[in-house]
Task: inverse folding
């Protein structure tokens, strides 16, 4: 099928056996790629109950059908496996050029299992693959690792690697690509560390086949002409930091470990806004083939480093009551160098600061480090200690859930997480649809999964829905299903999530059809997304994990928030939202299990017998 090379690289790290296999074409038709293809394959090859940091947990790198093609904003790839942080389905999405280069190297995806005897890296080049010794790289930061691997393989190779945090199996560690691109969530850096896999390195020059090449290029030109709206222009000028100042001012970004009141507990939002960040920008960059180029590099003193994204600015900024932009940039640099998820790291430091404020811990516990709210040096110092598992940092290196368990003394009451995953920097009190996503998606606490929040106040072009009132909780079930299904396809196809905002939604089936030779309608896209949602959900159910019972911290649901032009007390009725979503999905309201009818309708008959 065009759009795919039709090859999956299977690597057993324990035996050093490598083989290329050709998945059945129906898997591509039904699940596309990325975590759609990955969820189906991992469900098939991995038994339930494996240890996330053990040899039987598989780790998969996968691109989508649009990746490496002329399709606009289609450079994303996904890393996936059972999460050691949440013990659920885990995935982490990233951009840059790694995903396209994986396709150019001859493969749609790489599936790894086992544990190597000593540190290794996987080198994939034009359909050839080998494991190489990485002992000399173990302990090195990601930037040095990438430089050395490019020297040893190819100067234009793309690298996805771990730093010391992943090697130390920090459960909030992540995987860092060339240019600091992070596959941040689910703690999958720890899985690479447990496997003694320092890096995956890819390079190639094989073209990605296109079903109708002329049509693909026509569509690219057609949608290029749409990239002139305000959102696209803001992304082009600022990147995601374009939204940070307003998010803080209007209550979308959380403050002081989710307990702060916008406009009261964090004045000075402009210090972290787009204008402030861009004043430090010295170079722009972006993902492969993207005309927006929303990324960039900033200069602080002698250090040139990646421009912080909105999530990072919020996690190390208002969440920690910190207005020092340079400290945020330094903390972001440390996370990139050592391989830490910035959302989880900032959240964990905010938790520690509240522990310090409440007297649960003191300077004796922190080796003399005073953790006052907003202290920029404390934030930077503690970030490095977390990355290296040093002193008090070792206690925090596995996220807030485990830190609270170790500290005790009632700290569990303000350890903000959903089944171990620190939530993203989008407050459900401001956009209640996020509460359903945080609770019900197979990856807890994730903001990039789509749902009713996508149409609370604004509807992307081509979506046949009217804007829905944020704080009316009933009537969102079918909308949440529709929007989350759409975003599952966006992620699986390799599209950037911003693509659904910047251009007409019809671009998704049009590009897929031109690249793959299919005849998908928008309704077909929703059905594929629903199938992906169900197989990811089934993975969790087979593990004995039922998201219906996930607990959402009260701070995410109750408190002061913006409504219209004013402020008022909000109490998000998550029970109503979840009940209606379960009904829309045809999932049982108590067990979370899909009905047999639903699974058969989606072509998942084999899944029925696993947990019904």
Result:
């Amino acid at each position: 099928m065009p759009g795919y090379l039709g090859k999956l690289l299977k690597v057993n790290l324990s035996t050093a056996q490598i083989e290329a296999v050709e998945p059945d074409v129906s898997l591509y038709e039904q699940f596309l790629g990325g975590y759609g293809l990955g969820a189906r394959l991992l469900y098939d090859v991995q038994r339930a109950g494996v240890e996330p940091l053990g040899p039987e947990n598989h780790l998969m790198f996968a691109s989508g059908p649009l990746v490496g093609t002329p399709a606009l904003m289609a450079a994303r790839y996904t890393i996936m496996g059972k999460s050691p942080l949440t013990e659920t389905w885990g995935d982490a999405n990233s951009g840059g050029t790694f995903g396209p280069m994986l396709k150019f190297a001859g493969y749609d995806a790489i599936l790894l299992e086992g544990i190597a005897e000593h540190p290794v890296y996987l080198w994939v080049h034009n359909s050839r693959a080998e494991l190489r010794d990485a002992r000399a790289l173990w302990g090195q930061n990601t930037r040095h690792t990438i430089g050395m691997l490019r020297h040893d393989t190819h100067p234009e190779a793309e690298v996805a690697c771990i730093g010391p945090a992943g090697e130390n199996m920090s459960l909030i560690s992540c995987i860092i690509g060339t240019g600091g691109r992070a596959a941040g969530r689910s703690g999958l850096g720890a899985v690479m560390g447990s496997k003694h896999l320092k890096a995956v390195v890819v390079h190639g020059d094989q073209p990605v086949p296109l079903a109708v090449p002329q049509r693909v290029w026509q569509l690219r030109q057609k949608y290029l002409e749409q990239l002139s709206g305000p959102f696209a222009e803001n992304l082009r000028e600022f990147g995601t930091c374009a939204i940070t100042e307003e998010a803080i001012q209007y209550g979308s970004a959380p403050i002081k470990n989710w307990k702060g009141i916008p406009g009261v507990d964090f004045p000075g939002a402009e210090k972290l806004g787009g204008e402030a960040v861009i004043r430090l920008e010295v170079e722009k960059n972006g993902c492969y083939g993207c005309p927006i180029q929303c990324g960039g590099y900033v200069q602080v003193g002698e250090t040139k480093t990646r421009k912080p994204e909105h999530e990072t600015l919020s996690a190390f900024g208002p969440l920690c009551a910190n207005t020092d932009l340079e400290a945020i940039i330094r903390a972001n640099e440390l996370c990139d160098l050592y391989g830490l998820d910035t959302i989880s790291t900032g959240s964990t430091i905010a938790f520690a600061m509240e522990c310090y404020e409440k007297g649960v811990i003191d300077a004796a516990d922190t080796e003399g480090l005073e953790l006052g709210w907003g202290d920029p040096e404390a934030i930077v110092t503690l970030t490095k200690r977390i990355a290296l598992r040093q002193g008090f940092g070792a206690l925090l290196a596995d996220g807030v859930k485990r830190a609270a368990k170790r500290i005790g003394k009632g700290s569990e009451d303000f350890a903000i997480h959903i089944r171990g995953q620190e939530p993203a920097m989008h407050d459900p009190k401001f956009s209640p649809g996020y509460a359903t996503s945080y609770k019900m998606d197979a990856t807890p606490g994730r903001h990039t999964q789509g749902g009713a929040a996508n149409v609370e106040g604004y509807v992307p072009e081509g979506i046949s829905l009217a804007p829905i009132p944020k704080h009316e909780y009933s009537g969102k079930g079918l909308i949440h299903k529709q929007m989350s299904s759409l975003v599952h396809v966006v992620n699986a196809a390799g599209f950037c999530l911003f693509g659904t905002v910047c251009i007409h939604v019809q671009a998704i089936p049009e590009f897929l059809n031109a690249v793959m030779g299919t005849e998908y309608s928008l309704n077909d896209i929703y059905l594929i997304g629903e199938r992906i949602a169900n197989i990811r959900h089934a993975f969790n159910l087979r593990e004995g994990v039922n998201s219906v019972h996930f607990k959402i911290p009260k701070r995410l649901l109750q408190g002061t928030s913006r409504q219209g032009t004013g402020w008022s007390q909000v109490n998000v009725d998550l029970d109503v939202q979840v009940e209606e979503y379960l009904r829309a999905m045809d999932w049982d309201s108590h067990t979370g299990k899909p009905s047999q009818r639903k699974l058969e309708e989606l072509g998942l008959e084999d899944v029925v017998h696993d947990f019904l």
